[in-house]
Design goal:
138 residues; Ubq-SigPath_Reg; CTLH/CRA; mainly alpha; 2 domains; CRA_dom
């Protein structure tokens, strides 16, 4: 994938997430082998990658990862962070903005309706999930 060729940080984070999933599934031997073959060489090239790799490998040192100082790596938020990074890279590679437009447009709609509320009666959208225009109360 071309995106990964031009974005070593993204590639590392995807590989790191793969390592986290191996650890999560108790595949210790496979995780160590993967870290040694795939991630360690990248850590030698980049100090921040090495630090992230060390944090991830630290998960193996704890039997109870819920009390582990790096246990947040196993949280769903870590998966979401990696997924967001991938999505942003894909959008950027397709010459789109890295942030989706819909949340900004919805905020703009709410702001515009709030401005209009002070000045006029108009059909407004009260429920953004249905986007039904409702006639103004006269």
């Amino acid at each position: 994938m071309q995106i990964l060729d031009t974005n070593p940080q993204l590639f590392f984070h995807l590989q790191q997430q793969r390592l986290i999933e191996l650890i999560r599934n108790g595949k210790v031997e496979e995780a160590l082998e993967f870290a040694q073959e795939e991630l360690a060489p990248r850590g030698e090239e980049n100090q921040s990658f090495l630090e992230e790799l060390e944090r991830t490998i630290a998960l193996l040192a704890f039997e109870d990862v819920t009390n582990c100082p790096v246990g947040e790596l196993l949280d769903i938020s870590q998966r979401l962070k990696t997924a967001s990074e991938v999505n942003a890279a894909i959008l950027t590679s397709q010459s789109h903005e890295k942030d989706p437009k819909l949340p900004s447009l919805l905020k703009l709609l709410i702001w515009a309706q709030n401005q209009l509320d002070e000045k006029a009666a108009y059909p407004r959208i009260n429920d953004l999930s249905t986007a039904v225009l409702e006639d103004p109360a006269i």
